[in-house]
Please model this.
Amino acid sequence: MRIDLHTHSRASDGTRTPAEVVHEAAAAGLDVVALTDHDTSEGWPEAAEAAAKVGLTLVRGMEISTRHNGQGVHLLGYLPDPTYQPLVVALQRILDGRNSRIPAIIDRLNALGYEITAADVRRVAGEAAATGRPHVADALIAMGAVRDREQAFDELLSPGRPAYVDRYAAPLTEMIRLVGEAGGVTVIAHPWGRHDPSGMTRDDIAELAALGLVGVEVDHQDHDSRARAELRVIAEDLGLVRTGSSDYHGAGKKNHGLGCNTTDPAQFQRLMELAATAAADSGRPAPELLRP
Ligand code: AMP
Ligand code: FE
Ligand code: FE
Ligand code: ZN
Model:
């Protein structure tokens, strides 16, 4: 059984539609895929329909933009009730921060001599509920100003580069709590990733586990073999679920092909058991896994 618990579609900064992600996941030999767009559940219905057609198990998830001790942390939330109002409100605040940042980035780029407009970014972002720097990068690619997203980030959009603009992110501990109240479970994404180094220590992770965090993404392309080994030990010591995933973004991220990292079936089973408990504790029915 091959399980990939972290992917993005055009609902955020992936380049494939939710249905395409699911079809490609099936073609890549995956049995289970989680759609985890940034800060939105917008892609779920389309992905669910596609999963039912191709006979793949879909886990409905999201990757929430949070902050902890002044550092950005990406939090994977699986199977929360997407209609739980406090969660809806918190996500909307993040999405508003994303949207209001785009004009600020465009101002910076204009000052640097790039003739890019909000309409250019909107065009490449399409229906995305969560807009982000990758969409600005795609608009720059369409103009012929940069080769790929990598170059756009390295030269312009990353922290410390001239067109970087910060944005709102929700308090991490509050989001762990809200996803739990919504009957879902949370896993820290790429805790030692290259692009958003959270600076998270074993003690930080232990504190979060005490607050309800259930897992850590160990196998991720941003983690080298030493980081993976260390994280694995931390997760085991703390009794946390260890996940592995691709963080697939379609053509938007190189070396992140579907299934390039996978989650051990026993770990997945535990994650789903914890989700069932979280659902029951929140007074909701057992989470529906869209099974073939
Ligand atoms: P934002 O959501 O606007 O803060 O942008 C962050 C997103 O940009 C991440 O989720 C990644 O998908 C993407 N990203 C960050 N750094 C790079 C990079 N160097 N090359 C390509 N994509 C990147
Ligand atoms: Fe992304
Ligand atoms: Fe991430
Ligand atoms: Zn991601």
User: Anything to note?
Assistant: Residues 104-157 form a domain with the DNA polymerase; domain 1 fold (CATH 1.10.150.650). The two ends are 14 Å apart (CA to CA). The CA atoms of residues 273 and 286 lie 10 Å apart. Residues 8, 13, 38, 249 surround fe (iii) ion (ligand 2) (CB under 6 Å).
